[in-house]
Amino acid sequence: MTEKTLPDWLEPIAKLSDFDGDPHKYVEYLFSLFTRDFISNPPSFRGKKVLFAKGDDNGKPKAFVHITTEEDKTTKQRNLALRRCERITWIKAIIEHCDDPTILVWEAEHFGKKRTTNRIYLFLECDNFLVILEEMKWGHYMITAIYVDMPHQKRKHLQAHQDFLNKQSKKQT
């Protein structure tokens, strides 16, 4: 697979320009895709359902708002994150095709304020798109899905994947 070749199981990206630049129409379309992929027919990971934050954020589930926007560090406002938005259908596809060789999968402990959890990272390296799940007793919880646009972030994730593989191989010997 070359750098720009994407797996054939991915849908085409959904561009704002396809909606004449109208962000309201675009967000409604994205929400219809989110509804299809996560509300009407939620994905499973390793045989367990993937759930998401359902709390309300201006009439949409918090998870939808989180995966389609990013916080402006200066204003603290959430603005559309076009690279995330364009790939909204890829989240479910990546989860369901996690065994595909194009997806790098690793686990790592996450040290939260109240507890330590196990997070699963699914990284489509050829397009820098990362889905993060958290393992729960009853299933998996979608933490986020981001477009990794900074080279140092990509290096950090690739190193985490390599560290996980090294740890796994030491367990087997």
Largest sheet: spatial strand order = 1-2-10-9-8-7
Secondary structure category: alpha+beta
The value of Rg in angstroms is 16 Å
The share of residues in helices is 25-40%
Number of E-state strands: 10
Domain module tally: 1
Q: H/E order of the elements?
A: HEEEEHEEHHEEEEH
- Measured between the Cα atoms of the first and last residue, the distance is 31 Å
* Total of DSSP H or I helical runs spanning 4+ residues: 5
Tell me the overall shape.
Answer: globular
**Mean of all residue-level pLDDT scores:** 92
Written overview of the protein:
- The structure is a single chain.
- The chain is an alpha+beta fold.
- It has one domain (16-172).
- It contains five helices and ten strands, in the order αββββαββααββββα.
- It has helices spanning 23-40, 62-68, 82-86, 88-96, 151-172, and strands spanning 44-45, 48-51, 56-57, 60-61, 69-71, 78-80, 103-111, 116-124, 129-136, 139-147.
- Strands 1-2-10-9-8-7 form a six-stranded mixed beta sheet.
- A hairpin with a 2-residue loop joins strand 3 (56-57) and strand 4 (60-61).
- The two termini are 31 Å apart.
- The model has no long low-confidence stretch (mean pLDDT 92).
In short, what is this structure?
This protein has 173 residues and is α+β, with helices and mostly antiparallel strands. The protein has helices spanning 23-40, 62-68, 82-86, 88-96, 151-172, and strands at residues 44-45, 48-51, 56-57, 60-61, 69-71, 78-80, 103-111, 116-124, 129-136, 139-147.
